[in-house]
């Protein structure tokens, strides 16, 4: 079965996909399947990014990364739904879905 790319999905399809991924992740967590859980969480984060408006995120601004880490992320540039920049003033550039960023 060929699945649609997130970029081609409607908002309804994305929300349905996110719900399905969250259910699968919950089951994987209950079964102790740590790696499967992590993969499903990342897929849901990526799908959520397509519900965000990249124009709401600005270059050279610093955002918190969602989660428990408390890391800060400075955006150097945007490419689609990915923000490319550095974490905690590191010199290593990385890309993360914009859905993981919060003010």
Describe it for me?
- With 103 residues, this protein is α+β, with helices and mostly antiparallel strands.
- It folds into 2 domains: 6-49, Orthogonal Bundle (Helix Hairpins), CATH 1.10.287.880; 54-102, Hypothetical protein YfhH like domains (SH3 type barrels, Roll), CATH 2.30.30.340.
- It has 2 helices and 5 strands; from the N terminus they run H-H-E-E-E-E-E.
- It has helices at 11-30, 34-49, and strands spanning 62-65, 72-79, 82-87, 93-97, 101-102.
- The chain has a 5-stranded antiparallel β-sheet.
- Strand 2 and strand 3 (82-87) form a beta hairpin.
- It starts with 10 loop residues before the first helix and ends with a strand.
- The relative contact order is 0.15.
């Amino acid at each position: 079965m060929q699945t649609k790319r997130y970029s081609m999905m409607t908002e309804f399809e994305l929300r349905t996909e996110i719900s399905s991924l969250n259910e699968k992740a919950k089951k994987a967590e209950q079964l102790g399947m740590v790696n499967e859980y992590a993969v499903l969480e990342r897929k849901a984060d990526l799908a959520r990014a397509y519900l965000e408006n990249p124009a709401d995120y600005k270059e050279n601004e610093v955002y918190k990364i969602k989660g428990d880490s408390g890391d800060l992320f400075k955006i150097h540039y945007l490419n689609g739904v990915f923000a490319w920049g550095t974490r905690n003033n590191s010199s290593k550039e990385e890309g993360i879905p914009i859905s993981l960023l919060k003010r």
